[in-house]
Amino acid sequence: MTRAWILALTVVLGFWAGFAEAQAQEQLPAAGATPSANYIIGPGDTLKVFVWSHADLSVVVPVRPDGRISTPLVEDMQASGKTSTQLARDIEGVLQEYVRTPTVSVIVEQFVGAFSESVRVVGQAVKPQALGYREGMTLLDAMIAVGGLAEYAAGNRAKVIRRSGDKQTEIKVRLDDLLNDGDVRQNMPLQPGDIVIIPESRF
């Protein structure tokens, strides 16, 4: 093989390696990256709510498993499913009762990736987190990835929240039966955007 062929092959291989790496990076949010303006907020995200000229109303809050947030003067505002701009306008609407012409900015400080491409496990898991969806993913796969149930989890009161368009469906699942008793009937297939909510035991 001539030196010219070796050089050409090296260039081609380098190109494809760089292309593959770029494709992989597109599928996962980079550390410290900022989501686009069209990013849809979801449970597990962390939001900075800034109210201009009102530092006492400006806070950093997590989006709860139920998709809501609470800030000073604004209780249980639905955040999941909205862009940061939409949420800011909604917060302004509530604050108008208390503040003259409020101006609100919402910044997604920490995000777990595209809502429609992940499965989120929140609540009483050992390592609650957002998981990249893959074809054929099941509830058992997700539970293994998050380390199983936490000590005080009420696994048999868990549920999967599934959204299709404007419709939201709640599916009850018995995780204790699945993980401890091997009840494979509970091992349902998951879909992108599913949220697995594991409540805490009352006792």
Describe how the helices and strands are arranged:
Blueprint (H helix, E strand, L loop, with lengths): L2 H25 L18 E6 L7 E4 L5 E4 L2 E5 L5 H12 L8 E7 L7 E6 L5 E4 L6 H7 L12 E7 L2 E7 L1 H7 L13 E4 L5
Parallel strand pairs: 6-10
Antiparallel strand pairs: 1-2, 1-5, 3-4, 6-7, 8-9, 8-10
Q: What is the gyration radius calculated from CA atoms? A: 22 Å
Count structural domains.
2
What sort of overall outline do the alpha carbons produce when their principal axes are compared?
elongated
CATH class of the largest domain, named Alpha Beta
Strand % is 25-35%
Distance between the termini: 73 Å
**How would a textbook summarize the main sheet?**
5 strands, mixed
Q: How many DSSP E strands?
A: 10
Helix and strand element order: HEEEEHEEEHEEHE
What would you call the structural class? alpha+beta
Q: What is the count of helical runs?
A: 4
Q: How much helical structure, as a percent, in the residues?
A: 25-40%
> Low-confidence runs (pLDDT<50, min 5 residues)?
5-32
In CATH, the topology of the largest domain is named: Outer membrane lipoprotein wza fold like
With strands numbered from the N-terminus, the spatial order across the biggest sheet is 7-6-10-8-9
CATH level-two architecture of the largest domain = Roll
CATH superfamily of the largest domain: Outer membrane lipoprotein wza domain like
Mean pLDDT: 81
